Automatic annotation (TrEMBL):
Keywords carried by this UniProt record: ATP-binding, Kinase, Nucleotide-binding, Serine/threonine-protein kinase, Transferase
SUPFAM superfamilies, A to Z: ATPase domain of HSP90 chaperone/DNA topoisomerase II/histidine kinase
EC assignment: 2.7.13.3
Pfam assignment, any one: HATPase_c_2
Organism this protein belongs to: Amycolatopsis mongoliensis
Gene3D superfamilies: Histidine kinase-like ATPase, C-terminal domain
Name this protein carries in UniProt: ATP-binding protein
Keyword Nucleus appears in the UniProt entry: no
Histidine kinase/HSP90-like ATPase domain segment(s): 3-113
Source superkingdom: Bacteria
GO molecular function: ATP binding; protein histidine kinase activity; protein serine/threonine kinase activity
Length: 117
């Protein structure tokens, strides 16, 4: 998965470029989406095992939604020295709304932006 992150980020950026959004909004969506993908790649699967991550994006009825779902095991983040562990806060600050749902069979991060950006 981790080796495909640049490709997925590029595909998201290319798609956003077709929507007529401001450059700033596109950058926010790409960064938040990439952060969610990177979190899945790094944290969802134990001992570096490979696992699936689904990335979905849609623009519908004045909303832009990006959803990243993995099928790994949620682990409570370990305490850090302040240099790590800021990904979900970054996502929260970039999206108009974000939510994380942790299940036994994986985690879904949903990020939503309202039109006008």
């Amino acid at each position: 998965m981790a080796d495909r992150l640049p490709e997925l980020r590029g595909a998201l950026a290319d798609w956003l470029g077709t929507l007529g959004l401001s450059e700033e909004r596109q950058e926010d969506v790409v960064l938040a989406g990439y952060e969610a993908m990177a979190n899945s790649a790094e944290h969802a699967y134990r001992d570096g095992e490979a696992g699936a991550v689904d990335v979905r994006a849609e623009a519908l009825n004045g909303r832009l939604t990006v959803t990243v779902t993995d099928y790994g095991e949620w682990r409570t983040p370990a305490a850090t020295n302040g240099l790590r562990g800021r990904g979900l806060r970054l996502i929260d600050s970039l999206a108009d709304h974000s939510a994380q749902v942790h299940r036994e069979d994986g985690t879904t991060v949903t990020m939503t932006w309202l039109s006008g950006g």
